Amino acid sequence: MNTLILGPGAVGRLLALHLAATMPVTLVGRRELPRRQTLTTPTGETLSHELDSVTPATLPDGLADIVHLTTKAYAAEAAFEAIAPGLAPDTPLVLWQNGYGVQPRLSERWTGPVLCASTTEGAYLNGDEGVVHAGRGQTVIGDLAGRHTRLAEDIAAGLDTAGLTTVAVDDIHVRLWHKLAVNAAINPLVARFRIRNGQLRDRPFRPMVEAVIEEVSAVMAAEAIPAPAAGWSAQVWSVVSSTANNRASMLQDVQAGRPTEHEAILGPLLAAGRHHGLATPALAGLHARLAETDSVSGSVARQ
Ligand code: KPL
Known about the structure:
This protein is an alpha/beta fold. It has ten helices and twelve strands.
C-alpha cells in the first residue's frame, strides 16, 4: 500500500516515520527534503528511515493508494488540488487539519472516500532532517457521513500497528468541533498576547478566556454539539493546565511570521453564531486582530 503524505510538517513527518516501518511512504511538499529522516521518540531514542520526497510537479501519476493531507488548514485545498489530477478517482483521502472548513468542503468535492482525523500527538520539526515526537497522544478517525466505517477501522488499525494510538469513531464531526472549541479558547489569546498556555490562568487573561468559553458554549448548544462530560469551562481549563508550558501552535505561527489558522478555528464559530443570531464579540475581536496580524506578516514576508 503506497502512502502519500502531502504536507511534510511535524504531523506529516510523524506519520511518515511511523508508517515507513510497515509500508512504502512518499513525502510530498513544496520542496524536496533530505532522503534520510529521523524520528526522535518521546524517550529520546532516534530512529531513521530513507523516505522518498517529491514535489507535486515530480510526483508520478497513479502512485498513491492513500493520501494523508497534513498541511495547515489554510493550505490544504490548494495542496490537494495540485496533486488530485494524478490520483485514481477512488483514492482514499485522510484530512488532518484543525478547525472545521476543509473537511466538509473536500468531503463534498473529492470523488473518493474522505476521512477526517483529529489527534493530540505532540510533535515539532527538527529542521529538514526529522521530527521530535514530544508527547504521546491519541488519534481518532472517521468520515463525516458515516459511510466509510470499515475503511476508517482499517486505517486506524494501520496507524495503531505503526505505533500511533488510533481508533475509528462514528462521531468525528463532534470530535472536530470539540477540538476546535478548545483551540478557540486558547490559541487566539495566547497568540495575541504572546504568552504560554498556562499564563491564561492569571489576570488579566482569565476573564478573557471565560468570555470566549461563554460564546463558544452558546454556539455549540445552538449547533447541537454535545458539551464534554465535565462542561466546556472545565474542559478548557484542564487542557490549559495539561499544556501549561506549551507555546501553542498559533503562537508559534505568529512568532515565525507564518499565517495562522484563525480562519479555520474562529471562522466556523463566527458563521454558526451569525446563523443562529448569537452575539460573539470576543470571538469577532480575536478574529479581526489575527487577520490584521496575518496581513502584516504576509506583507513583510512578501517584501
Ligand atoms: O492544540 C493546541 C495547539 O497548540 O494548537 C493546544 C490545545 C492549544 C495546546 O497547545
